[in-house]
Amino acid sequence: MKTSVFDGLTVGDDIPALTMPPLSRLTLALYCGASGDHNPIHVDTDFAHSAGMPDVIAHGMLSMAWLAQVLTHWVPQTAIRDYSVRFAAMTHVGERITCSAKVTEKFELQGERRVRLALTAANDEGQTKLSGEAVIALT
Question: What is the pLDDT of residue 132?
Answer without folding.
Answer: 98
